[in-house]
Amino acid sequence: KDSEKLSQCCINLGATARQFATVCVYGKSGTGKSRFLTELYYARQKSGNKCYFIKGENNRNSLYEFLRSLINGIYSFNFNRDGTIVFPESIKNAFKVDKNFKSFEFIDSILKCENQNDIDTVSARNWLGSVLRNGNVTILVDNTQFVHKDVLSFLRQVCNDLQLCHCNSEIVFAFNSDYMMSTSLAYHFLNDL
């Protein structure tokens, strides 16, 4: 019942004009955080949001791999064996016509980088900020305490960048307090929120 109430609350948040939302759910193992996120995913999808579900235990990957995965989720890109993106024809044409199109600034930087250190994080933040500002987007991060520290820092910066933005997007973080240490980045991130 509590999960249903929380889910309804978040649906209602999306029904009115509001500021970008950073939502944190935390508790011990078995308290229903993952179930809540799953219910919220389907409820927000039903209300018209594009939803992306990230499982922390599966995303201990680098920021580079995380961003490529998110790009794929947002644009439905495929990747060649060498790791380059296969653009749909309509995207290729738009990119050829307007090289300054903001979303492609970031994608172009990801295509050019050869490793984690080459990522232009400012372009990446601008890209994700643009995606969240210009659409009804819900990103759900389960078991946030397991997310790679570079990914968590990146998401923290995006949330800070958007805190005064008026849009119907949100990032929802679920933290399992059984696995958090007071010295971890996830612990400090939760306390900052």
Strand and helix map with partners:
Elements: H1 2-14, E1 21-27, H2 33-46, E2 50-55, H3 63-75, E3 78-79, E4 85-86, H4 89-97, H5 102-112, H6 121-133, E5 137-142, H7 149-162, E6 170-176, H8 185-192
Parallel strand pairs: 1-6, 2-5, 5-6
Antiparallel strand pairs: 3-4
Strand content: 15-25%
Average pLDDT across residues? 77
Counting DSSP E segments of at least 2 residues, the number of strands comes to 6
Major beta-sheet overview: 4 strands, parallel
Structural class: alpha/beta
- Proportion of helical residues: 40-55%
Detailed description of the structure:
- The protein is α/β, with parallel strands linked by helices and 193 residues long.
- It is built from eight helices and six strands.
- It has helices at residues 2-14, 33-46, 63-75, 89-97, 102-112, 121-133, 149-162, 185-192; strands at residues 21-27, 50-55, 78-79, 85-86, 137-142, 170-176.
- The chain has a four-stranded parallel beta sheet, with helices on both faces. A two-stranded antiparallel ribbon has the order 3-4.
- Strand 3 and strand 4 form a beta hairpin.
- The radius of gyration is 17 Å and the shape is globular.
- The model has no long low-confidence stretch (mean pLDDT 77).
